[in-house]
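Cross-check.
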Amino acid sequence: MPPTVSLDPEQLACRIKQWGQELGFQQIGISDTDLHQAESHLQNWLDQDFHGEMHYMAAHGLKRSRPELLQEGTRSIISARMDYLPEPSARSQTLLADPAAAFVSRYALGRDYHKLLRNRLQKLADNIAAAIGPFGYRAFVDSAPVLEKAIAEKAGLGWIGKHSNLINRRAGSWFFLGEIYTDLELPADQAASNHCGLCRACIDICPTQAIVGPYQVDARRCVSYLTIELHGPIPEDLRPLLGNRIYGCDDCQLACPWNRFAKLSAEADFRPRQRLDNATLLELFAWDEAEFLQKTEGSAIRRIGHQRWLRNIATALGNGRPDPDVLAALNRRLHQVSDLVAEHIHWALRRLTGA
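Predicted model, tokenized:
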């Protein structure tokens, strides 16, 4: 597409940020490609096996920390964030205190964010091309080996907190990230400074003590890893610590004092679907596979499959009260599930009955 205006790099960067906000992003920043500090931190994390079964974190050589190896010709990275919080955080606290309720991480209550953000990033790239003509780029939303949080930190969108999430002084941490790797030479923004100070709220609140030190998360103990990434049985010593969390965990974000500045998302696609924001464990445990696939269509939850969904809910039921309806539901499921799920059902029944 032929260029319609002449823009110097500074002007183009300003336009990119303006277009990003018009497309629904709350903030756009620009970074260079030097991620050597993040590369060292990643390697140290991998050396301690904190990634567990997430073998993709160790794959791809240095492409994750050296953008030009992933996308040849990359000279600048456009980093974008979009708020997703669908409801006040007090609602989450209420659900976590109710053992009969099912808690799903707030990011997964609505439509899968990958397609939405990728479409918006594509529109942003289209705007750039309309202004300057064809250029080299590639957009990412958790779709390739990209150190998105380190990039966003360099681009000034926030700092990486002690829980390893990105925190923004004016918006907390309830947001998604996406990137455009580009061959354009754009002026980099100033990197964000760290404002965690002496606070350790996220470390202290973690139900499984997965934050083994500031800025060090042992994923093998993390509830999000155990309920989403882990394919096999959840370690027995950790099961009681999961409470009623069946898909992900938000405790470290709920405890972060910076999230008092978080704003509710205006995106309709991030609103809760299928009553996942107030469903009971028994309701969700009753879904057969066809119902699970139908009700999780377009949702990030579908990726774990029906069997791990049941595995997680059986564990949560075992952490609740020995209600007759719960015991009956667990026993009904026993002969309809895989050995993996059956093992967690037996564990739940033993906990609830003392047998």
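The longest helix spans residues 113-132. DSSP finds 14 helices and ten strands in the chain. Passed to J.P. for a second look.
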